[in-house]
Structure formats: C-alpha cells, structure tokens
Design goal:
This protein is mainly alpha-helical. Helix content is 72%, strand content 0%. The protein has helices at residues 8-28, 35-42, 46-52, 56-80, 86-102, 111-127. The longest helix is centred in the middle third of the chain and has 25 residues, at 56-80. The mean pLDDT is 80.
C-alpha cells in the first residue's frame, strides 16, 4: 500500500487482513490460500481487501512476507548482537527453532520462505522467458 495515513480503524482492519492471511498461510500454505479464504477468516469484504491491498493477492503476499520477516528479526534481534560465544550461538539457534515449533505441526516450512518462494516463482512466471 502506498504511504498514506490510515485512521485507527483503517489500520486495525488492514492489520486484521494481514494477520488473518499470515495465519492461514502458516496453516495451509501459500498455494492453498485464496483471497476468499482470507476474507472468510477476517470477516472482511472484497472491497476492504482491495482498498488496503490494491494489488490483490501479490501485494497481500508481499505484506505477509514483510510481517513474517519482521517477526523473525524481532525474535532474533536480542541474540544477533551478542553472537560472541558458542553458548550464544546455541541460544540463538534454540530461539529460532522454538519460534517455528510454537507455530505448530501444520507449518513444516518457515512461513517467510514459503511466501517469498511463491513470490519469486510468480515474478519469474510474470517476467516471461529467461535467456541463457
């Protein structure tokens, strides 16, 4: 979404759509997540979704990728600045592993990887043939 100021209610609606999409993707994967799934999960209308994500599914997926990247960095930030010993590296690893375990058994892949992989495939598809 272009940089514009949202009302508190508008920001909450956008966040609800984004969080709902992220949760659905973690539970079902990118390929199995449709805009209709997100609408049903978030009790929003198509006009609301396209108001906050005018680029549709691809824009929403980019926003989910940013959200997931922010979450990954937030979880790791305390350890990243202090990787000065083997114990610190192990603590960092344990934090990362714990993050994905807490997401549940239905999420075998990193959600960030799942979304960005899909976006990369879509970009290659839309780019047309590649040259050797």
């Amino acid at each position: 979404m272009t940089a514009r100021t949202l009302t508190r209610k508008g920001a909450a609606t956008r966040r609800r759509i984004l969080e709902g999409a992220a949760t659905h993707i973690r539970e079902h994967g990118v390929a199995a997540t449709t805009l209709d799934d997100v609408l049903a999960r978030t009790s929003t209308s198509k006009s609301q979704l396209f108001h906050y994500f005018p680029g549709g599914r691809e824009e929403l997926l980019l926003a989910v990728a940013r959200l997931e990247a922010d979450r990954v960095l937030e979880d790791q930030r305390p350890q990243l600045g202090a990787l000065t010993s083997w114990a610190a590296w192990q603590a960092w690893r344990d934090t990362v592993v714990d993050r994905y375990r807490r997401q549940g058994r239905l999420c075998p892949l990193c959600p960030l990887n799942s979304v960005t992989s899909h976006l990369g495939i879509a970009h290659l598809r839309d780019s047309g043939p590649t040259r050797p």
